[in-house]
Amino acid sequence: MTISGKELADSIIGRIASEVEDYHVRFGRVPALAVILVGEDPASKVYVRNKTRACERAGIRHIEITLPEDTSELEILENIEALNADPSVDGILVQLPLPAHLSESHITGAIAREKDVDGFHPLNVAALWLGRDNAKIEEHYPVACTPRGIMRILEAAGVDPAGKRAVVIGRSNIVGLPIAKLLLNANATVTICHSRTKDIAEITRQADILVAAIGKPKFVGAEMVRDSAVVVDVGINRLPDGKLCGDVDFEAVAPRASVITPVPGGVGPMTVCSLMENTIDCYLRHTAKRKKRKI
Ligand code: GUN
Questions:
Q1: Residue 226 C-alpha to ligand 1 middle, in angstroms?
Q2: Residue 144 alpha carbon, nearest atom of ligand 1
């Protein structure tokens, strides 16, 4: 079964759009997301455009701040401070990667925790690693978008990770580590593989659920996958002919897998969809707090 992340994301964004209309009537304003893009990275420009288009479909107001490649850290921090202090802004995102002279940890750590729609703030990361119940974590704190989207895909495919052997290839802060923790919270037995793992195929062949987030085109071949495995492909790589491909060799692996996500149209749209959900969650927490304070 090939899971269309695009169809799933479209249906969730459609539901969000009707909820937003209702929130607008009830609370007098729509949710707002600020997106900061620094520099000219072509892939980042595409991702930001996808995010702002999704905001338009969801009825979420979006504020785009585009800054030149040589912007100083101080200037970015000043922009973030202004957005942190603006009560009409619910979510703030700085598109990564940043130009080399900028510190990703300084910048993502400067976003107010309660507006951190990416779930990158150290306290939100800590909440994920200290919590054990994914539903409760999502209710109180934002969780990184791609991992949240992957859990949605598994749910939609009827895959319960409990008791299953999950193998994650990749240990990034954005995907590998948080998806490993969400799968662990969902009671899977989790192994994280990475570029220094020896005999990686021997480990991946044991996976009931295999998440490939290593950033190498078609890295996962049929010989690395057991029969009937659930295969989630996080990679977005551009081949020399300009076509996109994932970290999984889809044609080779699909006949073996019980569930597989395609690239494009799999995890990517679900990442954007989770961003919309995180923005709504931040808006609702924000609105509830303001109501409590009678502002
Ligand atoms: N770059 C690649 N993935 C992401 C993401 O999920 N959020 C941000 N801010 N930048 C990214």
A1: 30
A2: 6
Q: How far apart are the first and last CA of the chain?
A: 50
Residue nearest to atom 3 of ligand 1 (CA): 96
Average pLDDT over residues 250-274: 98
Nearest CA to ligand 1 atom 1: 96
Tell whether pTM > 0.85.
yes
Tens-place pLDDT, residues 60-117? 999 999 999 999 999 999 999 999 999 999 999 999 999 999 999 999 999 999 999 9
Residue 141: predicted pLDDT: 94
Residue 295 has pLDDT above 70, yes or no: no
Domains of the chain, each with CATH number or no CATH: 28-112 (3.40.50.10860), 146-267 (3.40.50.720)
Active site residues: 51, 95, 118
| Contact (Cβ atoms closer than 8 angstroms) between residue 248 and residue 282 | no
Tell me the pairing of strands 244-245 and 237-238: antiparallel
Residue 96 Cβ < 6 Å to ligand 1: yes
E strand segments, the chain: 32-38, 61-67, 91-94, 165-169, 189-193, 209-212, 230-233, 237-238, 244-245, 259-260
Which residue has its alpha carbon closest to ligand 1 atom 8?
95
